[in-house]
Amino acid sequence: MSEEYNLKENSAGRLVPTIINGEDAIPFQGVEKYKPNHNKAAPPIATCADYPADGNKLIKDLKTALLETGIKDGMTISTHHHFRNGDYVANAIFDAAAEIGVKNLRWFPSASFPCHEPIIDHLKSGVVHHIEGSLNGPLGEFASRGKMKGMGVLRSHGGRYQAVQDGEVHIDIAVIAAPCADPFGNANGLYGESACGLLGFALADSQYADKVIIVTDHLIDFPCYPWQIQGNYVDYVVVMDKVGDPEKIISGTTRITKSPDRQLIAHLAARFLRDSGIMKDGFSFQAGAGGTSLAFIDHLSGYMREADVKARFVRGGSNEFLVNMLKDGLTDYILDGQTFDLKGVESMRDHPNHADTSPFTSYNYHGKGIFATMVDAAILGATEVDVNFNANVVTHSDGMLLHGIGGWQNTLFSRCTILTVPTFRNRIPILVDEVTTMVGPGELIDVVVTERGIAINPNRKDLIDSVKGSDLPIRSIEELRKETEEICGGKPAKPKLGDRVIAAIKWVDGTVIDAVRQVLD
Amino acid sequence: MKKVTVGILGEKKNLDCNIELTIKDSGGIEIDLKSRVEAFYGDSIRKLIHTELSFFGIKNVRITVEDYGALPFVIQARIETAIKRAIPDINKEFLPEFSDKCLYGSSRDRFRRSRLYLPGNFPKFMINAGIHNPDGIILDLEDSVAPSEKDAARALIRNALRVVNFYSAERMVRINQLPMGLLDLEWVIPHNTHLILIPKCESADTVKQVDEKIKETKNDVFLMPIVESALGVINSYEIAKASSNVVALAIGLEDYTADIGTPRTKEGKESFLARSMVVNAAHAAGVQPIDTVFSDVDDAEGLRESILEAKSLGFVGKGCIHPRQIRIIHEAFAPTEEEIEKAKRIVNAFLQAKEKNLSVVSLGSKMIDPPVVKRAEKIVELAIKTGKLDEGWRNNE
């Protein structure tokens, strides 16, 4: 084996690398165990004397801006995923870098999407050495087959902020795509053709990167207000014809699932919140953007109306359904991390109680508190859940790395974390003996809602008691797993995985919770 | 040698598979498996196919399987159908093990508010049908199965009856019209089918033929004739009385309106007489009258109205074609608060009279007849089942 990563077993019983791309890494020690005692990272001191007094930081194109930053081999370039699968900017950066002729860059996106497939060519040619960020779709498959030179590193949204803040990842150049900006570098996601709502994922980068470039296709005169990104952090502003494809920027699932089985799961989850008493005046919840989540929000809204209950806040990803809750007075606030549809963007722009949040406010584990722990219930998905309530969101059962962590790990800190999953998909069990990749430790996962019943973590006696006497189908997770196995026709064979670690999975505190291995054919 | 196929090759069908099979004179067993779940179940699928081939004594064959996550009972049925298409005189059946979750019984007077139609040749609809809690599931061999696929559907339904957990739903099969329907019975009756739906039933004789055929192997299978024509409506009482195994009488309006030569309208004036006749015949015969299906699955409000109307006509159940209709049906058939209160008073009076050994039940100054008590008991039972009344209501008051 050419790579040297010195595997060690962590407290979750997983063998993880202690050296990642040549740098030391700390194995996971347990939830709430690892507490670093060094100071935060700090960017170099700038002086306004070096910047134009008229506030005009415009520069003619991306390539020139990159040259101005002093781009060199081996540097780290960051981008963000607020344009989701409609982003044009990340590909443009590495095309420009290839023209300049630099090599071995580290791409540090907050997430990658299938639209970033062209980066594979830059990985092959050596312009990009490796990616640290979610590896979705084609990039995940490329890495899973062992074709990426370095090791991938997957972090949660909060973990990414923590890594930058703690100095684990030093960003040389941050490129922030902005739907709307002024020549000084103030920017927001509220206006322009590419409006995406907010730019919270780029906050850490603006604060900690050595150089910051804003790229926009909607330049307005100073001031661009509200300034979600402050121009005082920004070095250069570049105008591009188009920064993204508006239709794909707003690409979250915006329709309630039509699948009767998923409808059933959503309905059970909503009933659980109602019957357990979690749904009460002043409560809060967070649900994702998928079709099941939307059905859940729809059912829960109905129950809230019936019981005349109002939430204090709901956490976004916002969408039409959450916006309607705000409009109809079912919640006082939406605290939003990203907007999933145009109704969400409009509401954030126009409604004073639709607030934009960031991974810093919501998720950064090395902060003085986070919003995530104040949420009464988080309703999340998973690719696999095991009998110890451990869950996986990054790999499929065949070992292929296909999804990012997103805010998933961070939201596990809610008071009641509920995973909504089918027991199996196309004969492949989702409820298993042991997850392929450990992304979330079972001690933080309280309830698993499936189409065949609801399992409550035995550690949560309070939750078990809260639904006693209800007609909810409460079953043990082992019972559900057994039934799943019977339906699917026995235990599935283990996928053929190689020894090579192709990616490390970080926990919210920067320690390594698991490793993803190469998939063999 | 002749090549036979099962399924439409190249067309992806979730939880199903396509088979191409050629019996040969020599060369042994060749299996070409392309499976979506190769990594997990590839070896177990190959093993299953070998076991099945050896059961049927087939030694030289070429089989191509395109698998889209078919469960073992599905693969088993598909292979069996392919083999029987290639060698029509094989009579043996390769049965999957009877799951103990498929052995529960049914009862004459159980609720039949909702019964979910499942197209007989599509396994993906069967596997999760029971989790939506319909009162009954109908594995359909008739209209939802193409004439050329009846054999495939029979094998699939038989295996589903032995393996799939429909939870507590009544296990129903809709057979084809006679005489084909009599062959269907041979495939399904031995596998704990609770009830047979007899489509387009026009005479007591049809019911009797089905009943006789079933009695060759078994006695206790219920029957639900479906009246779908003008003649059937006229004969509905005789149909309902044709056998003591008839427990319900259903009406199918698509065929009925076609038969009387008028389009089916939302208001349903054209079928009012027919529906009332069926309700009347059913009640006269002491069986449950069941209404037709509501076919617009996206129109929840329309469905609710249609059930309330059916309920007002005297129907006690409704067919459904999508799981999402089930909850609406149960809610709409649930008794109203007013009905429950009245029923509770009657049941209470009846029980009190019984406790005091009185032969006459009265409520206030009114005498209550036994049928009124029976109806009230039914309402209380339904109220409990739909969560509108606590089981221990008499002790709580």
Overview features:
heterodimer, A: 521 residues, alpha/beta, Glutaconate Coenzyme A-transferase, 2 domains, eight-stranded mixed sheet, seven-stranded parallel sheet, 15 helices, B: alpha/beta, TIM Barrel, 3 domains, four-stranded mixed sheet
Count every beta strand of chain A, where a strand is a DSSP E run of 2 or more residues. 29
Number of helices of chain A: 15
Q: Low-confidence parts of chain B lasting 5 or more residues at pLDDT below 50?
A: none
Return the CATH class of the largest domain in chain B: Alpha Beta
* Protein structure class of chain B: alpha/beta
- What percent of residues of chain A adopt helix (DSSP H or I)? 10-25%
Largest inter-chain interface? A-B, 22 and 25 residues
- Report the CATH superfamily of the largest domain in chain A: Glutaconate Coenzyme A-transferase
- Mean pLDDT of chain A, to the nearest integer, reads 95
Q: Rg of chain B, please?
A: 24 Å
- Strand arrangement, largest sheet of chain B? 5-6-7-8-9-10-11-12
From the structure provided, what is the oligomeric state, counting identical versus distinct chains?
A: heterodimer
Q: Which value, in Å, is the CA radius of gyration of chain A?
A: 23 Å
The secondary structure category of chain A is: alpha/beta
CATH H-level homologous superfamily name of the largest domain in chain B:
Phosphoenolpyruvate-binding domains
Distance between the termini of chain A: 19 Å
**In angstroms, what separates the terminal alpha carbons of chain B?**
77 Å
CATH class membership of the largest domain in chain A: Alpha Beta
Describe this structure in words.
The complex is a heterodimer of chains A (521) and B (397). Chain A has 521 residues and is α/β, with parallel strands linked by helices. Chain A has 2 domains: 53-132 and 169-249, 3-Layer(aba) Sandwich (Glutaconate Coenzyme A-transferase); 260-497, 3-Layer(aba) Sandwich (Glutaconate Coenzyme A-transferase), CATH 3.40.1080.10. Helix content of chain A is 25%, strand content 21%. Chain A has 15 helices and 29 strands. In chain A, helix 1 packs across helix 2 (89-100) and helix 8 (260-275) packs parallel to helix 9 (291-307). Chain A is globular, with a radius of gyration of 23 Å. The mean pLDDT of chain A is 95. Chain B has 3 domains: 3-86; 106-333, Alpha-Beta Barrel (TIM Barrel); 337-396, no CATH class. In chain B, helix 4 (150-163) links the parallel strand 6 (136-140) and strand 7 (170-174). In chain B, strands 5-6-7-8-9-10-11-12 form an 8-stranded parallel β-barrel, surrounded by 4 helices. Chain B has a 4-stranded mixed beta sheet with strand order 1-2-4-3, with helices on one face. In chain B, strands 13-14 form a two-stranded antiparallel sheet. The N and C termini of chain B lie far apart (77 Å). In chain B, helix 13 (337-355) crosses helix 14. Chain B has 397 residues and is of the alpha/beta class. The chains are: A alpha/beta (521), B alpha/beta (397). Chains A and B meet through helix 8 and helix 15 of A and helix 1 of B.
